[in-house]
Design a protein that fits this description.
Blueprint (H helix, E strand, L loop, with lengths): L7 E5 L2 H23 L5 H23 L2 H4 L3 H18 L1 E3 L2 E6 L4 E2 L1 H19 L1 H5 L3 H7 L1 H16 L3 H18 L3 H21 L2 H13 L16 H13 L11 H5 L8 H33 L4 H25 L17 H18 L1 E4 L1
Antiparallel strand pairs: 1-5, 2-3, 3-4
Length: 379
Protein backbone atom coordinates (compact mmCIF):
# COMPACT_ATOMS: atom_id res chain seq x y z
CA UNK A 1 0.00 0.00 0.00
CA UNK A 2 1.17 3.54 -0.78
CA UNK A 3 1.46 5.96 2.07
CA UNK A 4 -0.94 8.87 1.96
CA UNK A 5 1.39 11.87 1.59
CA UNK A 6 -0.79 14.93 1.27
CA UNK A 7 0.79 18.32 0.71
CA UNK A 8 -0.51 21.84 1.30
CA UNK A 9 -0.08 24.31 -1.54
CA UNK A 10 -0.52 28.08 -1.25
CA UNK A 11 -3.60 29.21 -3.13
CA UNK A 12 -3.28 32.91 -2.27
CA UNK A 13 -1.55 35.33 0.07
CA UNK A 14 -1.73 39.06 0.75
CA UNK A 15 -0.05 40.50 -2.33
CA UNK A 16 -0.73 44.06 -1.12
CA UNK A 17 1.72 43.53 1.74
CA UNK A 18 4.32 42.17 -0.66
CA UNK A 19 3.83 45.11 -3.04
CA UNK A 20 4.16 47.64 -0.20
CA UNK A 21 7.36 45.95 0.93
CA UNK A 22 8.85 46.03 -2.58
CA UNK A 23 7.91 49.70 -3.04
CA UNK A 24 9.60 50.68 0.23
CA UNK A 25 12.73 48.73 -0.73
CA UNK A 26 12.80 50.42 -4.14
CA UNK A 27 12.54 53.82 -2.45
CA UNK A 28 15.51 52.78 -0.32
CA UNK A 29 17.51 51.82 -3.42
CA UNK A 30 16.72 55.16 -5.07
CA UNK A 31 17.84 57.04 -1.97
CA UNK A 32 21.03 54.96 -1.74
CA UNK A 33 21.79 55.71 -5.40
CA UNK A 34 21.14 59.39 -4.76
CA UNK A 35 23.41 59.55 -1.71
CA UNK A 36 26.15 57.30 -3.13
CA UNK A 37 26.36 59.24 -6.38
CA UNK A 38 27.22 62.39 -4.43
CA UNK A 39 29.79 60.70 -2.20
CA UNK A 40 32.19 59.48 -4.93
CA UNK A 41 31.31 55.79 -4.57
CA UNK A 42 28.37 53.63 -5.60
CA UNK A 43 29.41 50.68 -3.42
CA UNK A 44 26.62 51.31 -0.90
CA UNK A 45 24.03 51.29 -3.67
CA UNK A 46 25.39 48.04 -5.12
CA UNK A 47 25.53 46.43 -1.69
CA UNK A 48 22.00 47.52 -0.88
CA UNK A 49 20.86 46.02 -4.17
CA UNK A 50 22.44 42.70 -3.22
CA UNK A 51 20.89 42.92 0.27
CA UNK A 52 17.48 43.46 -1.33
CA UNK A 53 17.81 40.46 -3.65
CA UNK A 54 18.85 38.21 -0.76
CA UNK A 55 16.14 39.60 1.54
CA UNK A 56 13.43 39.20 -1.08
CA UNK A 57 14.50 35.59 -1.57
CA UNK A 58 14.23 35.05 2.19
CA UNK A 59 10.71 36.54 2.17
CA UNK A 60 9.57 34.17 -0.54
CA UNK A 61 11.32 31.22 1.08
CA UNK A 62 9.64 31.80 4.44
CA UNK A 63 6.28 32.31 2.72
CA UNK A 64 6.39 28.96 0.91
CA UNK A 65 8.59 26.66 2.98
CA UNK A 66 7.65 27.01 6.65
CA UNK A 67 4.85 25.67 8.81
CA UNK A 68 4.80 28.17 11.66
CA UNK A 69 2.56 26.13 13.94
CA UNK A 70 4.79 23.06 13.71
CA UNK A 71 7.95 25.09 14.31
CA UNK A 72 6.74 27.04 17.34
CA UNK A 73 8.49 24.60 19.72
CA UNK A 74 11.76 26.14 18.54
CA UNK A 75 10.95 29.51 20.15
CA UNK A 76 12.77 28.91 23.48
CA UNK A 77 15.83 27.52 21.67
CA UNK A 78 15.86 30.58 19.41
CA UNK A 79 16.10 32.72 22.56
CA UNK A 80 19.00 30.62 23.89
CA UNK A 81 20.84 30.97 20.58
CA UNK A 82 20.27 34.72 20.57
CA UNK A 83 21.59 35.02 24.14
CA UNK A 84 24.71 33.16 23.06
CA UNK A 85 25.19 35.57 20.15
CA UNK A 86 24.66 38.59 22.40
CA UNK A 87 27.35 37.31 24.80
CA UNK A 88 29.63 36.47 21.87
CA UNK A 89 29.34 40.06 20.60
CA UNK A 90 30.47 41.45 23.95
CA UNK A 91 33.49 39.10 23.94
CA UNK A 92 34.50 38.98 20.28
CA UNK A 93 32.40 41.61 18.53
CA UNK A 94 33.77 44.63 16.68
CA UNK A 95 33.49 48.09 18.25
CA UNK A 96 32.07 50.89 16.12
CA UNK A 97 31.77 54.46 17.47
CA UNK A 98 32.25 53.30 21.04
CA UNK A 99 29.58 50.58 20.93
CA UNK A 100 30.27 46.83 20.72
CA UNK A 101 27.17 45.45 19.10
CA UNK A 102 28.02 43.66 15.86
CA UNK A 103 29.77 40.58 14.54
CA UNK A 104 31.91 41.39 11.52
CA UNK A 105 31.11 38.88 8.76
CA UNK A 106 33.16 40.66 6.15
CA UNK A 107 30.47 41.72 3.71
CA UNK A 108 28.07 42.84 6.44
CA UNK A 109 28.13 43.52 10.14
CA UNK A 110 25.53 41.34 11.86
CA UNK A 111 23.89 42.81 14.97
CA UNK A 112 22.28 40.12 17.18
CA UNK A 113 20.29 42.79 19.02
CA UNK A 114 18.13 43.17 15.87
CA UNK A 115 17.54 39.44 15.90
CA UNK A 116 16.74 39.51 19.63
CA UNK A 117 13.74 41.78 19.08
CA UNK A 118 12.19 39.36 16.60
CA UNK A 119 13.05 36.21 18.56
CA UNK A 120 11.40 37.62 21.69
CA UNK A 121 8.22 38.22 19.68
CA UNK A 122 8.17 34.52 18.74
CA UNK A 123 8.80 33.54 22.36
CA UNK A 124 6.12 35.88 23.72
CA UNK A 125 3.57 34.65 21.17
CA UNK A 126 4.34 31.05 22.15
CA UNK A 127 4.05 31.62 25.92
CA UNK A 128 1.10 34.02 25.81
CA UNK A 129 -0.87 31.53 23.73
CA UNK A 130 0.16 28.56 25.86
CA UNK A 131 -0.78 30.29 29.14
CA UNK A 132 -3.42 32.69 27.93
CA UNK A 133 -5.93 31.79 30.64
CA UNK A 134 -3.29 32.43 33.31
CA UNK A 135 -2.52 35.81 31.76
CA UNK A 136 -6.16 36.95 31.79
CA UNK A 137 -6.43 36.28 35.53
CA UNK A 138 -2.89 37.25 36.52
CA UNK A 139 -2.18 39.88 39.13
CA UNK A 140 1.47 41.03 39.42
CA UNK A 141 2.42 38.23 41.84
CA UNK A 142 0.70 35.53 39.78
CA UNK A 143 2.35 36.87 36.61
CA UNK A 144 5.78 36.64 38.25
CA UNK A 145 5.01 33.07 39.32
CA UNK A 146 3.42 31.71 36.14
CA UNK A 147 5.59 33.55 33.61
CA UNK A 148 9.00 33.23 35.27
CA UNK A 149 10.78 31.99 32.13
CA UNK A 150 9.34 34.86 30.12
CA UNK A 151 10.49 37.44 32.65
CA UNK A 152 13.96 35.98 33.18
CA UNK A 153 14.87 35.41 29.53
CA UNK A 154 13.54 38.83 28.52
CA UNK A 155 15.39 40.50 31.39
CA UNK A 156 18.71 38.83 30.56
CA UNK A 157 18.31 39.73 26.88
CA UNK A 158 17.61 43.38 27.71
CA UNK A 159 20.59 43.58 30.09
CA UNK A 160 22.92 42.27 27.38
CA UNK A 161 21.51 44.81 24.90
CA UNK A 162 22.14 47.60 27.44
CA UNK A 163 25.75 46.41 27.78
CA UNK A 164 26.05 46.65 23.99
CA UNK A 165 24.86 50.28 24.17
CA UNK A 166 21.94 49.72 21.84
CA UNK A 167 19.27 51.64 23.72
CA UNK A 168 17.07 52.27 20.66
CA UNK A 169 16.68 48.53 20.09
CA UNK A 170 15.79 48.13 23.76
CA UNK A 171 13.11 50.82 23.52
CA UNK A 172 11.60 49.37 20.34
CA UNK A 173 11.69 45.82 21.69
CA UNK A 174 10.22 46.85 25.03
CA UNK A 175 7.39 48.81 23.40
CA UNK A 176 6.61 45.87 21.12
CA UNK A 177 6.44 43.30 23.91
CA UNK A 178 4.38 45.66 26.07
CA UNK A 179 1.98 46.11 23.16
CA UNK A 180 1.69 42.33 22.85
CA UNK A 181 0.71 42.09 26.53
CA UNK A 182 -1.97 44.73 25.99
CA UNK A 183 -3.28 42.93 22.91
CA UNK A 184 -3.27 39.58 24.71
CA UNK A 185 -5.55 40.99 27.42
CA UNK A 186 -3.29 41.48 30.45
CA UNK A 187 -4.92 43.21 33.42
CA UNK A 188 -4.58 47.00 33.69
CA UNK A 189 -2.97 46.79 37.14
CA UNK A 190 -0.27 44.48 35.78
CA UNK A 191 0.30 46.70 32.75
CA UNK A 192 0.60 49.78 34.97
CA UNK A 193 3.17 48.08 37.19
CA UNK A 194 5.23 46.96 34.18
CA UNK A 195 5.09 50.48 32.74
CA UNK A 196 6.27 52.03 36.02
CA UNK A 197 9.07 49.48 36.27
CA UNK A 198 10.15 50.27 32.70
CA UNK A 199 10.14 54.02 33.39
CA UNK A 200 12.24 53.60 36.54
CA UNK A 201 14.74 51.39 34.70
CA UNK A 202 14.90 53.92 31.87
CA UNK A 203 15.64 56.77 34.27
CA UNK A 204 18.38 54.74 35.96
CA UNK A 205 20.00 53.86 32.62
CA UNK A 206 19.89 57.46 31.40
CA UNK A 207 21.13 59.07 34.62
CA UNK A 208 23.74 56.50 35.64
CA UNK A 209 24.71 55.13 32.25
CA UNK A 210 27.18 56.32 29.64
CA UNK A 211 27.87 60.06 29.45
CA UNK A 212 26.90 60.25 25.78
CA UNK A 213 23.27 59.50 26.69
CA UNK A 214 23.19 62.51 29.03
CA UNK A 215 24.60 64.75 26.29
CA UNK A 216 21.94 63.48 23.88
CA UNK A 217 19.22 64.37 26.38
CA UNK A 218 20.72 67.84 26.75
CA UNK A 219 20.67 68.24 22.97
CA UNK A 220 17.08 66.98 22.84
CA UNK A 221 15.93 69.54 25.43
CA UNK A 222 17.63 72.26 23.40
CA UNK A 223 15.98 71.47 20.05
CA UNK A 224 12.73 69.68 20.86
CA UNK A 225 9.48 71.63 20.44
CA UNK A 226 8.15 69.96 23.60
CA UNK A 227 10.40 72.11 25.81
CA UNK A 228 9.81 75.82 26.48
CA UNK A 229 12.54 78.46 26.76
CA UNK A 230 14.81 76.61 24.35
CA UNK A 231 18.21 78.22 23.77
CA UNK A 232 19.79 77.09 20.50
CA UNK A 233 22.29 79.94 20.30
CA UNK A 234 24.92 78.02 22.28
CA UNK A 235 25.49 75.06 19.99
CA UNK A 236 28.30 72.60 20.62
CA UNK A 237 29.74 69.56 18.83
CA UNK A 238 27.06 67.25 20.27
CA UNK A 239 24.34 69.32 18.62
CA UNK A 240 25.71 69.06 15.10
CA UNK A 241 23.77 66.10 13.75
CA UNK A 242 20.41 67.12 15.24
CA UNK A 243 20.87 70.70 14.04
CA UNK A 244 21.77 69.59 10.51
CA UNK A 245 18.80 67.22 10.41
CA UNK A 246 16.36 69.99 11.36
CA UNK A 247 17.99 72.36 8.86
CA UNK A 248 17.57 69.83 6.06
CA UNK A 249 13.97 69.08 7.05
CA UNK A 250 12.92 72.72 7.03
CA UNK A 251 14.74 73.47 3.76
CA UNK A 252 12.71 70.78 1.99
CA UNK A 253 9.44 72.67 2.30
CA UNK A 254 6.34 71.21 0.69
CA UNK A 255 7.82 69.77 -2.51
CA UNK A 256 11.51 69.45 -1.64
CA UNK A 257 14.70 70.80 -3.13
CA UNK A 258 14.83 68.12 -5.82
CA UNK A 259 16.78 64.88 -5.94
CA UNK A 260 19.97 66.52 -7.21
CA UNK A 261 19.93 69.62 -4.99
CA UNK A 262 19.91 68.24 -1.47
CA UNK A 263 22.59 69.66 0.81
CA UNK A 264 22.62 67.22 3.72
CA UNK A 265 23.95 64.24 1.74
CA UNK A 266 27.14 66.16 0.90
CA UNK A 267 28.67 64.95 4.17
CA UNK A 268 26.79 67.60 6.17
CA UNK A 269 24.75 64.82 7.78
CA UNK A 270 27.14 62.01 8.81
CA UNK A 271 24.53 59.24 9.17
CA UNK A 272 22.57 60.10 6.03
CA UNK A 273 22.43 56.49 4.77
CA UNK A 274 21.18 54.98 8.02
CA UNK A 275 19.83 56.87 11.02
CA UNK A 276 18.81 60.04 9.15
CA UNK A 277 17.69 58.70 5.79
CA UNK A 278 14.18 60.05 6.46
CA UNK A 279 15.75 63.53 6.65
CA UNK A 280 17.19 63.11 3.15
CA UNK A 281 13.76 62.08 1.86
CA UNK A 282 12.11 65.11 3.49
CA UNK A 283 14.74 67.51 2.20
CA UNK A 284 14.75 66.38 -1.43
CA UNK A 285 11.11 65.28 -1.83
CA UNK A 286 9.58 67.66 0.67
CA UNK A 287 6.71 67.17 3.07
CA UNK A 288 4.74 65.40 0.33
CA UNK A 289 7.46 62.81 -0.27
CA UNK A 290 8.06 62.27 3.45
CA UNK A 291 4.37 61.79 4.20
CA UNK A 292 4.02 59.33 1.31
CA UNK A 293 6.88 57.20 2.65
CA UNK A 294 5.55 57.39 6.22
CA UNK A 295 2.04 56.70 4.96
CA UNK A 296 3.26 53.61 3.11
CA UNK A 297 4.79 52.35 6.35
CA UNK A 298 1.51 53.04 8.16
CA UNK A 299 -0.48 51.23 5.48
CA UNK A 300 1.87 48.25 5.69
CA UNK A 301 1.46 48.12 9.48
CA UNK A 302 -2.32 48.28 9.48
CA UNK A 303 -2.55 45.72 6.69
CA UNK A 304 -0.29 43.32 8.61
CA UNK A 305 -2.19 43.98 11.84
CA UNK A 306 -5.51 43.30 10.11
CA UNK A 307 -4.26 40.04 8.63
CA UNK A 308 -2.96 38.85 12.00
CA UNK A 309 -6.11 39.91 13.83
CA UNK A 310 -8.30 37.73 11.59
CA UNK A 311 -6.41 34.48 12.30
CA UNK A 312 -8.17 31.66 14.11
CA UNK A 313 -4.93 30.46 15.69
CA UNK A 314 -4.19 32.56 18.76
CA UNK A 315 -0.46 31.88 18.38
CA UNK A 316 -0.40 33.16 14.80
CA UNK A 317 -2.51 36.13 15.86
CA UNK A 318 -0.08 37.13 18.60
CA UNK A 319 2.92 36.44 16.37
CA UNK A 320 1.66 38.54 13.44
CA UNK A 321 0.62 41.46 15.65
CA UNK A 322 3.96 41.41 17.48
CA UNK A 323 6.05 41.38 14.29
CA UNK A 324 3.94 44.17 12.78
CA UNK A 325 4.37 46.30 15.91
CA UNK A 326 8.10 45.59 16.01
CA UNK A 327 8.57 47.03 12.50
CA UNK A 328 6.25 49.98 13.03
CA UNK A 329 7.75 50.98 16.41
CA UNK A 330 11.08 51.11 14.58
CA UNK A 331 9.53 53.45 12.00
CA UNK A 332 8.13 55.72 14.71
CA UNK A 333 11.46 55.94 16.53
CA UNK A 334 13.46 56.67 13.37
CA UNK A 335 11.12 59.36 12.06
CA UNK A 336 10.71 60.79 15.56
CA UNK A 337 14.46 61.18 15.94
CA UNK A 338 14.77 62.82 12.51
CA UNK A 339 12.22 65.47 13.54
CA UNK A 340 13.62 65.82 17.09
CA UNK A 341 10.36 64.51 18.53
CA UNK A 342 12.48 61.87 20.29
CA UNK A 343 16.05 62.12 21.65
CA UNK A 344 18.75 61.22 19.12
CA UNK A 345 19.50 57.52 19.04
CA UNK A 346 20.88 55.21 16.38
CA UNK A 347 18.35 53.08 14.53
CA UNK A 348 17.49 52.52 10.89
CA UNK A 349 14.30 53.11 8.90
CA UNK A 350 12.88 49.68 7.95
CA UNK A 351 13.33 48.65 4.30
CA UNK A 352 14.87 52.02 3.36
CA UNK A 353 18.04 52.65 5.38
CA UNK A 354 21.32 51.10 4.33
CA UNK A 355 22.19 47.90 6.17
CA UNK A 356 22.17 44.20 5.43
CA UNK A 357 21.30 42.65 8.79
CA UNK A 358 18.46 45.08 9.54
CA UNK A 359 16.93 44.66 6.08
CA UNK A 360 17.28 40.88 6.24
CA UNK A 361 15.66 40.55 9.67
CA UNK A 362 12.82 42.99 8.90
CA UNK A 363 12.23 41.19 5.60
CA UNK A 364 12.17 37.83 7.35
CA UNK A 365 9.53 39.24 9.76
CA UNK A 366 7.44 40.30 6.79
CA UNK A 367 7.89 36.86 5.25
CA UNK A 368 6.40 35.36 8.41
CA UNK A 369 3.42 37.72 8.17
CA UNK A 370 2.92 36.76 4.54
CA UNK A 371 3.07 33.11 5.61
CA UNK A 372 0.34 33.85 8.17
CA UNK A 373 -1.78 35.50 5.46
CA UNK A 374 -1.49 32.53 3.08
CA UNK A 375 -4.52 30.42 2.20
CA UNK A 376 -3.56 26.79 1.59
CA UNK A 377 -5.19 23.81 -0.12
CA UNK A 378 -4.29 20.26 0.79
CA UNK A 379 -3.94 17.93 -2.20
Amino acid sequence: MKRNSSKAYIVSFDKTILLSYVLLCLVGLIIMLDISSMQSSLKYFYRQGIFFVVSFSVVMGILHAFNLEKLRWLAPYMVYLTLFLLVFVLVKGSTVKGATRQIDLGFIGFQPSFLARVVLVFFFAHILDKRHDDLLDANPLAFATNFTSLIVLTGVTFILIILERHLSTLIIGGATLYGMLIYAGAKKRLLLLIALFGIVCGIVVLTHGADYRKSRLTTYKKYSLFFKNRDTTKADANDYQVKESLTALTSGGLLGTGIARGRAKHYYLPEARTDYVFTIIAEEFGFIGAIIVFGLHCFLFFRCFRIANTQESRYLKFLGVGLAMNIFCNVLVNTGVSMSILPPTGNTLPFISYGGSALLIDSASLGVILNISAVRRVV
